[in-house]
Amino acid sequence: MTTPSTLTAEELRHTESTPAGHGRRRPGLKVERVNWPGTTILVLCAVTVLLPLYVTVSMAFKTQGQAVDGNAFSFPAPFSIDGFVQAWTLTNFPVGAAMSLLVTAGTVVATIVLAAFASYAIVRNWERRLFRYSFYYLLAAMFIPFPVVALPQIQMTGRLGLDNPLGVILLATMFQLSFSVLLFTAFLRSIPMELEESARIDGATTWQTFWQLIFPLLAPMSATVGIFAFLYAWNDFMMPSLIISDPALQTLPLRQNLFQTQFSNNYHVSFASYLMAMAPAIVAYLFTQRWVMAGVTQGAVKG
Amino acid sequence: MSTTTATRRGQARPESRRRRRVEPIFYLFLLPSLVLFTLAITVPGLVGIFFSFTDSIGIGDWEFAGLTNYIAIFSDPAILQSYLFTFGFSIVTVLVVNVIAFLLAVGLTSQIRMKTALRTIFVIPMVVSGIIIAYVFNFLFSNSLPAAGAAAGITWLETSLLANPDLAWIAIVVVTAWQAVPGALLIYIAGLVSIPGDVYEAAEIDGASKFQQLLKITAPLVAGYVVINIILGFKGFLNAYDIIVGLTNGGPGTSTRSIAMTVIAGFNGGDYAYQMANATIFFVVAVLISLLQLSLTRGRNTL
Lengths: 303, 303
What we know:
Helices cover 74% and strands 0% of the residues of chain A. By secondary structure, chain A is mainly α. Chain A is globular, with a radius of gyration of 23 Å.
């Protein structure tokens, strides 16, 4: 497994400004004034975006007394971790987190491996009908909304004993496959054949060529594919809520409905619980934003 | 991305490869994806379509019922309402998302300070779990907003939006847009930075104002990206589920019930075959929209 090395902020800024730099840097107009009104408006917009997240964090650190007083925007005074302590046991957080982690890790690994292998076979045999049609077949899933296949899938996973996180991994991987194959095949086409041919001349088998030469070259694409699989698997509610039948095996997003029925006035507990479920995805994004942003653009333009 | 297309064109397949037999290992690379995909998505899809022509309740005996389910659906007010709601909500959300995302993208590609930090913040909503952020907004809509309404003396705001059958959809649009803006924003940014700077320079020399430039240069040149964003957004919003469950759970009454929610409810309600017919119709709608997407984006591969 190639793990993408974390970027430093400096590298990140550099890579991000590259595409923007070409289009906007106008020769002759290099000293342009900073657009202060624009900056101000955008900062205000950013505050609006952050408001619900601020409320989540501040509510989570309040005491029960302060949480019920009705003012969502006040700063927690005094700071209390009582909400986290209670949420930890109420939602059985360690088990929920373990389930979320299992589903997410499984989906990420399965998606990268299956999609990379399939894409390589497709691109290298594009002139063969079987491989070409397989590509369109796998891509067709982009057009199938989950609700359409949900009911038969619930029945099928139930009958096969997959009404648990394993079944969720299988389905989540299949739903991510189209997008991932699309990105991998586009990237594979840009790798020059000469590279592989020299490996062949040195006596490498197809397996060795792929695993030792091509797969490492795919690392940036694997990072993009992986982070999208991560975000989908970690955040999804609809599919796991329908597939996982045993409440003890529920992932974190599923456990939050506890607060919609019982304990509905213990806001500091519910918000602490929300925060613990949301934070890993936000942290993962902050470290991998370069690939998140690349994935959105490439997926849209190629799809 | 221009290098990608260049190498793809330059890489004319050598004749020797064309004649060579496909190495068996390539089948092995492709097979796992094809088999799992067929089992997890194609088979359930076909099973669902098959049962939509029966009177099955999900378990036990069933008989063929011809088109009975389909005929019944077209006169079922609950289903018609869910289609009306889902399409209405999707159209409004698409408009809101695209206007906001376009304006933000224009701002983020202009001469502003803190560009990278702002972009990082604006993308965060995309990586947050839909159901959990809906719970957070649920709290704001039922507690903070009425309190603000009361303080400002706005009567219609004093009761929760979520409890009002005529206004609850607004809350759903707000939260869905909050989460969907980043995706559209990133695609617009990609579109804007692809416009060469000298076009603006020429316009400036000819005396065009900033607003005229936006209207006469920027807007037409990103038209292709507008089409992509509208279709991608619309397709996503038609599947709306997680956010609605977290905000209104389809209520008050059934006023905010989406198509996905109606289909899923069929599993617990015992009208399995009937909801499969509903899902099949939904599938046809999704395919039609995808075909529209293909015909609109064909020939725009140069993006």
